[in-house]
Amino acid sequence: MMSNKGSVLDLFVIIAVLFGTAIAIIVGYKIISSIQSTWVPDDATALAILTDGTAVMKVFNAGFLIITFGMGVAVFISAFMIKTYPTFFVVSILMLGIALIVAAPFSNAFNYFINTDEMVDAIPHFGILNTIMRNLPKIIFGFGLLLIVVLYAKTQTI
Q: How far apart are alpha carbons 68 and 91 in whole angstroms?
């Protein structure tokens, strides 16, 4: 059974969570904005709910940055708590390379998704999210290098 503490494998979880969250935010914004543009409610309360719903979805732009670096910090802290053996350093470097190979198609898939005719008008509202997802391999590389440093550069007695 695998340990639930930090390792290089957590980079794959970060990739999947960021991709899924980014898609959900964009689709949620698109749904709310399309409802708002096609349906004009008679009730002032319903109009306020739709307007506030669109505004709340835009808040996720900054929230995505917090989610990204929050997951990174959580992995770093949990990685600091485990004992590691230097023999696994090479395996960690290989896993980082595989994580980069996995992150690039996810970044490209997000790029294709946001450039479709249906989604292209939502992107100006999500600059931070778009920047993070377009640079996902670079961010994963940075997280991976820091994670390897945290895993193997600490002094410990085994």
A: 25
